[in-house]
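Hi P.,

Sorry for the delay on this. The queue was packed all week, but I finally got your sequence through. Input first:
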Amino acid sequence: MVFICSKAMASQTFFLAQNKVPAGFETLSEPQKSVVDIYYGKRYLTSQLATFQPGKISLSNVNDVVRLIGSVNDPAFLASALSGELNTHTEAICPPNVTRDCGVLNPPVAGVIFDESRFRVDVFVNPRFLLTRAADVRKYLPPSDSGFAMMQNFAAVATGTSDDANSSDYTLYGLTLLSYRENSVLWSWDYSESQDFSVNQLYGQRDFEGFEYDLGLLSSQGFGLNFTSDQPLVGARFRSSDNTRDDTDFSGGMPIDIFMPLRGRVEVRKDGRLIASYFLEAGLQALNTTTFPTGAYDIDIRILDEQGSLLSEETRFFAKQFQLPPEGEWLLFAETGRVMTSVFDGVLPDSTQQWLTRAGVSRRIFDTLAGTLSAAATLDTSLLELGLFKLGYRYQLSPSVMLADNGSYGTALTGQVWLGNVSLFGSYRRLWRDDSEVENPDRPALIGDAFEQSNFSVSAPLWRGSANYRFSSNRNNNAARTETHGLSYTATVFRTLDYDTNVTFSVSESEGNSVALLSVEWRYREDRWTFRVNPRAEVQKTDGIEDRTEKLRLSVSWDDGDLYDGQLTSTVSAEAGSGERRLDGVLQYGNRFGKAALTVNHSSTEDNQITNYNGSFSTSFLTDGNVVAMGGEQLAESALVVNLEGREGDVFDVTIDGHKRGYAVADRPSVIPLAPFEQYTVTLSPSGDTLYSFDERERRITLYPGNVVTLDYKAIPLKLLFGRLLMKGEPLDRARIIGGLYPSSTDDIGMFQIEARSDIHELRVELENGWQCTVPVEPDDKQYILRMGTVDLSGYDCVPKLSGQLTNGERDSG
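Then the structure:
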């Protein structure tokens, strides 16, 4: 047995492990030097000389690698960790077509993966040795792209009724802006029927990289002050500004709910001037305050019926102020100046004997909690207000308290909660004031009359729509409290691409008066037309008297789409029922010269008929010293002017940040109104099917108040020419064609395609023997694709480049 095993083992080959390199392979284990590419986080850093051998690598300039990595908390220690011989960790290299569980290293300090086949080194650093890198977000708006510029905005608002000529009112607004880069002078004025010409604001401003400086006739601002009204003053202001910040934007305003016992008109005035007007249905209505000026001030709300009779009038406090400061930064505010009168008969406000100083600071205390401390003082009174803003999970809360040295004090609380799909909003404000204080008319009071306001609303989805409940309460000084309640439900019962049917039910009540409404709307859309049928039933109870109405409303709307260069929309409505007839018309048109809108409402009964109207018009005039332009469909405090050189009447679409915002017409400056404090990306594209040669690159512009930036473009209309060239019936191969934007040549069967200017009259064909033939091009302004057909050059004039024209015999023999 021993013999057999020994013999079997003797027949097998044995391999003995050894430490020395086999003969002939000594150079593979010796250190090698080569240039390697170094990456960090798959980002290329540099290339440098490295020394490597199996399992080990040494970098020649470690300090340069650490510098390029950046954001390390101890560069010297990290450099020492990457010095000397490093493990290549070849086992971590990803095999072909494998991306998981490979290519990553988690070293104690720092390490590398070296792929010798690609001469690539990937560096890895333990997170404990890295600094937190700020997000790649631009903090401030770039500097302005505009030099000197002037803008003049005009807007007119008018309202009235045919029943009483004295009830009509109109206001013409003007905003003049002179600017140079980030600096501007603003002049705001108006002309109204009752107050003639007056100047509201006139001041210089610089707003750049997070700070704003103002000097002149200003309107004071309520930085964290919820119980003092804004007042005009001549003075100076300094504040932190979000306008030029690109990393934060948060604001909000108070809801304004009104009760409409009847369908009618609502007028909102600030300091006696009309700032908004609405036609509203009966019930509890929330006003659209989007266009209201920012700040904190009293507004006068007048509710009139369709005949223009005053139903109610009240004064409310309105404020737009919500702010969560950037983390780790202070928001600062300070202003001081002489208080001016807000209502005046002359051109400029009258000066009072009062001085006003207001200041405040705000800071984020925790990630979702901010605090604001504000102070205000006049010659008679001073106050201090502390506010907080908490943004939590599915809720936000903003409480504040105010104390004044004259015994007045106030409190405010605003909050919103989301419970699943249910949204709840509530606000409460109350100001206590000592009524025994004697007011001096020449020294306006810092704090107004006592008031108490509360609002609550809840909204929840229900079936195919949403249900809403709103409550509001308002009491001024010692007057009686006014409370309103409203419950509504809106649902989309049926919807397709062209049809939809909506149902609305609402009940509202105020001071014993109530309105219940049931409405159904059927809508059909086809091309540019929209048709609506709206039957509804309404029950009103006023002073114990109940009134029921059933009405049917028919309306048709038309939108021109891209039919015209401007934007034209119109709506005509007719309504009848319960002894009343009504006809409404709305017409809006905007083009490069401006925008106009007219709304007319005519209602009639057996005893009376009346017509109400609202109208508005806006336009602008601007220049940058080189280009003068007029118009724009929207008013704005800055603008882009597109100066397009090309064929007269050609139209190009102007795309701003990926959206069509206007159009440019060749050989005339075209105005695109744009909001200031923004950077825009601008591109041009032809509106029709014609081919053009023009600059298609994106251009970036940055606008500040009053800025006008002009972009010059040149658009050359083109033709696309197709055809086939022959010489005595044979295809002309490799003939060079000149006359297009770029030279072209024929293929092996004589076919050619060339882009040329639309005003080209001929093509020149260069033959291989050096002769040149001229082929006329027939003009055709209607077609941008011209099929020239088959052209036999033997029937055209061909000449040598440097000699005279060939004779017919020479042409025939050639």
